Amino acid sequence: MKSEERSEPEIMQLYYSRKKEKMKLPNGYGSVYKLSGNRRKPWAVRLTVSHDEDYHMKYKYLGYYETQADALAALAAYHNDPHSLDNENITFADVYRLWSNEHFPKIRQKTQEGYRTSYLHCAPIHNLPMVDIKRAHLQNLIDTCGKNIGTLKLMKTLMTTLFKFALQNDIVVKNYAQFVDVNQYKEKNPNANPHTVFTSDEINDLWERSDDDIIKTVLMLIYSGCRISELLELKKDNVNIAEHYFDIINSKTNAGIRRVPIADKIMPFFSYFMEKGDKYLLGKHIIYRTYLDHWDMVNTGHTPHDTRHTCVSLLTTQGVDERIIRKIVGHSGKSITESVYTHIDMDKMLEAINLI
C-alpha cells in the first residue's frame, strides 16, 4: 500500500507531537510511552526491574491508560508508595532496583560495581518474592556459589542491606540475611576452585599467542604479580615506561599500595597499551565481569588469580628473597620498614623480576 503523502507543515506537526509523547523522565524513574495502533488505553507505564549478566534490561509493566496524564499520575503514585501495590509479589530483584535507585547516587562508582557483582552472584533468587525468601535460600546460595570468603562477605552484606530496606518498607517482617553464616568458609571455601600455577608449557603457549590483546594482559599479570583488579584499574598517569615501573595507588590492602617493576619481557606490552587513546592503560575501563567473558580463550583450567600465584612461584624458584617478593606482589611485610620504597629497592625488584 502506498504511503500517504504529507505536506511539510503536516510532517513537522507529526514530528513535534511524537517528540512530546516521548517526554524525558529521571533515570530509574520508569517510562511512559504511547503504543502503536488504535487502542482504548494506548499509554503504557514500564519499570526496569533487573538485568542479566550482559546488562540486557528486564521490565515490569504497571498498567495501560487512556491518556498520558493518567499514565504519569499512576507512575507518580507508584513512586509515592511503591510497596503498597503488591507486596506479596515484590521480588529480590524489585527490592534491589528500588534500593539501588535510591542509594547508588550517594556512593562511589567502584562501590556500585561491587554491589552489582554481588547482585549477579545472587541470580538464583532474583525472581523469588522477598516474603518467600528464608534463611535456607540464602545459606544455600552461599554454600553452593563457590566463591572465596571476601566475595561471600560482600554477598551477605548486600543480602542484609536489601532485607533491612525491605523491612523498613513493610515488605518483609524479618531479616533472615543476618543469620547467614559465611565464617565457616573463612579459611577456604571447599567449593572454590583451587589456585594452581601456570606450567612452563602453558606459559610458552601464551607467548606463542601473545599477538592477542587478552593474552598480553595475562602475561603482564604473570610477570608483575599484580591483582587483576589492579591492572584493570591502572591508569597511564601511573605508568613510568622510562624507569620501568608502575604505581598501584588503590588496592584491597594497605600493602597493595606499592611500586611494581616492569619486567623487560613485558615492557613491549606496556608500551603497546600506552599508545592507546584512553586514560586507562588497557585502552578503556574494563570491569572484572567483562574481563572474565574473554577468559576461556586463555586457559579454562586456571583463574585470573592463578597468574599471581604463578609469579610468586617463579620468583621463589629463582631464589628471590621473600621480602622482595612481598614488595613486588603487595603482600604484608613483617616490619614497617619493609613498606618504605627507595630507589635501591626498585633496582633490586627489577633485578628480581627479570630473573623469571
Brief sketch in words of this structure:
Helix content is 42%, strand content 9%.
Rounded mean pLDDT is: 81
Q: What are the low-pLDDT stretches, counting only 5+ consecutive residues below 50?
A: 11-22, 335-344
Indicate the structural class. Answer: mainly alpha
Largest beta sheet: what is the strand line-up?
1-2-3
Net shape: elongated
- Rg over C-alpha atoms, rounded to the nearest angstrom: 26 Å
Q: Percent of residues in beta strands?
A: 5-15%
The N- to C-terminal Cα distance equals 73 Å
How helix-rich are the residues, as a percent range? 40-55%
Q: Could you give the order of the helices and strands?
A: HEEEHHHHHHHHEEEHHHHH
Biggest sheet, in brief? Answer: 3 strands, antiparallel
| Count of β-strands | 6
The number of helical elements comes to 14
Note down, in words, how this protein is organized.
- There is one protein chain.
- It contains 14 helices and six strands.
- With 356 residues, the chain is mainly alpha-helical.
- The strands form two sheets. The chain has a three-stranded antiparallel β-sheet. The chain has a three-stranded antiparallel β-sheet with strand order 4-5-6.
- Helix 4 packs across helix 6, helix 8 (213-222) packs across helix 12 and helix 13 crosses helix 14.
- The protein is elongated and about 75 Å long.
- The chain starts with 7 loop residues before the first helix and ends with a helix.
- The model is unreliable at 11-22 and 335-344 (pLDDT under 50).
